[in-house]
Amino acid sequence: VKKFEEILNKINFKKAIKLYITISIILVLICSFTMAYLSRSSISMAIGYNKAAESFEKTGLTESVKSTLSKLAADSKDVVNIIAVDKDNNILFKANSNLINSDNKFILTPYEANKKYLKDEKGTLYKVVKSDNIVLNKNYLKNHEKEVSDINEESYYERDMKAEKINMVNYLVKKDTKDKVFIVRNATPIPYMKGAMEAFGIILGLIFMVYWVGLALWVYKDANKKKMNPALWGLVALLTNLVGLIIYSMYKQNNKLCHQCGSLQSKENIFCTLCGEKLNESCEKCGNIVGKNDSYCSKCGNKL
Ligand SMILES: [Zn+2]
Ligand SMILES: [Zn+2]
Asked: Which residues are close to ligand 1, an ion, with C-beta < 5 A?
């Protein structure tokens, strides 16, 4: 215990807190930038998708929308194809020839009873992904409540997507013409993302742990300095953290530090119980504690 207290006394907590905050901020920034870098192609995909979707909903399949879609397909590694069809499933536009039969139609039908999946005429499976899961706050299916209810929210990082050869599909519908655009993508997870997320989790956990234990150590040191029960207060802080700190501070406020030996004394004490230093003035007649500038005792009225 003595060695522990010696080490603790050597720690400059003010410096340690500054160092801790600096290191934490640097670590969180590094992690955030790493995640953003790893998902850079998904982010640019989301931005491109959003742009294409907005103009398609407004203007329909114009040349400018077609060129945006072509660019999206060319730039994103995971885009298999982007196919636009009219209400009778006739192909109006395709970014490349993947997935398409010769008959100029592209038809997706529900796969068995499971409406989360669609299949084309070749039998390839497509998992319907809500736009929200790729593009923030975009719900193109707002007016198709039944479809929305059929489509469960699925995470892009979903594990079972890795093993099976299933495409993901997002689709846009133009309300008046019923033209649709299918954006078909590979369900490949972002490389290194899983490991990066795990590492980020561990780092956040460590940062939190250092804070938690550090607070308890500070309370231990402070209580030790003020000749309180350091083990008890340290334990309270270790178990309850902030709540313990608040209780500790309130306890300290209701008491008084001896200016001679630094120990915590009751406010009512006239003398320090540890070093005998006089802490309060008292009335000679009744022993009541009186203020330094009082002329009369508040209890017995004795002139001081
Ligand atoms: Zn004292
Ligand atoms: Zn008195």
From this structure: 258, 260-261, 272, 274-275, 277
